[in-house]
Amino acid sequence: MLFWVIAAILTLGASLAVLLPLAASSKSASSAGDHDLEVYRDQLSELDRDAARGLIQPAEATEARAEIARRILRLDNAAAAGKASVRQTSVAARLVATAAVLAVPLVSWGLYSQLGSPELPSQPLSERLARNPADSSVDELVARAEAHLAANPSDGRGWDVLAPVYLRMQRFSDAAAAYRNAIRLDGDSAIRRAGLGEAIANAAGGIVSADAQDAFEASLKLDPANAKASFYLAMALAQEGRGKEAVAAWQAMLGKLPPDSPWRGAVEQALAKSGSPEVASGSATNGPDAGDVDAASSMSPTDREAMINTMVAGLDDKLRQNPRDPEGWMRLVRSYVVLGKADQARDALGRAIAVFGADSDEAKKFTAFAASLGLTATE
């Protein structure tokens, strides 16, 4: 009912906004004509007084009266024409005003009946928050939690539950504040510290600041196996330009993660991106060397061969995409030699020489390096 009362008031206001300016215009036009006529009448009275006192000759007085009379006639004619025009305008204005008054409610209410929900009952926020949580949206649940915490700010459990929700909603500043409250009220934990660090880093646009690093390091002290803290600390190394250390940290992390860990995909993606120059020059092509191959000797023959072939193939693919890496080419040639794949080693050597040119210093280094491994460019 309240809605329809408000709608009626708004409709009346819109109608008056159209009608009042039209009514005011006709009044202002008639008042201007009456004022001019009063001025001319005053001039005639003044002329009669001057003639009676002999200040003006009778002939001049007669001529002046005739001129004022002509002005009054012109004013009367203009007033008559104006009144006719005003009458025409008034008729048109009334038609426009009537159409506007009728159109506003008809169009607006007609659209609302089609696009709106007039039959929907009102839902005050208090009633929505009191509903069954299973029937509430995420925003309503968050509002309910915020209302509860506003009344009970010392509820550490409430802050602990709300903090990761804020994080998923990308309300990073609110998430950081909620994690701090949870830590202050319910004590430290690796999960809370890691969440705090993630909120701080995301609030800074993904930059792992000193405050975020402190939070992640505190998390690892409480739980050295916390994957989130380890991942972000490796990211901090990459952002500081310590690309090789970042890659080593991610590789070590990947070796410790269980196969079903949700962090494996993030680590693999970070390692794939580590080939870009902005992370670490040359770190992308650090393929397996002889030590890596020997370290795999403790594995079963099948697993060892699969691991080595995967590493060498990855290095080969990266060099095809970013070929101007002399150290990477020498590492690839040595890997193929250690694996006993002389043909692939010679092919890699030939491709490396072709990239830099047969007469280049790099080509001479490649040839000397291959000779030290007992490999020549041709059989």
Task: Note down, in words, how this protein is organized.
- With 379 residues, the protein is an all-alpha fold.
- The protein contains 16 helices and no strands.
- The N and C termini lie far apart (96 Å).
Q: What is this entry, summarized?
A:
With 379 residues, the protein is mainly alpha-helical. The chain has 16 helices and no strands. TPR repeats lie at residues 156-189.
Average predicted confidence as pLDDT: 75
One letter per element, helices H and strands E, the order comes to HHHHHHHHHHHHHHHH
* Annotation, overall tally of beta strands: 0
The share of residues in helices is over 70%
What summary fits the major beta sheet?
A: none
Class per helix and strand makeup? mainly alpha
Percentage beta strand:
under 5%
List the helices and strands and how they pair.
Layout: H1 2-52, H2 58-115, H3 125-129, H4 138-151, H5 156-168, H6 172-186, H7 190-203, H8 210-222, H9 227-239, H10 243-256, H11 263-273, H12 290-295, H13 301-321, H14 326-338, H15 342-356, H16 361-372
Helix pairs in contact: 1-2, 4-5, 5-6, 5-7, 6-7, 7-8, 8-9, 9-10, 9-11, 10-11, 13-14, 14-15, 14-16, 15-16
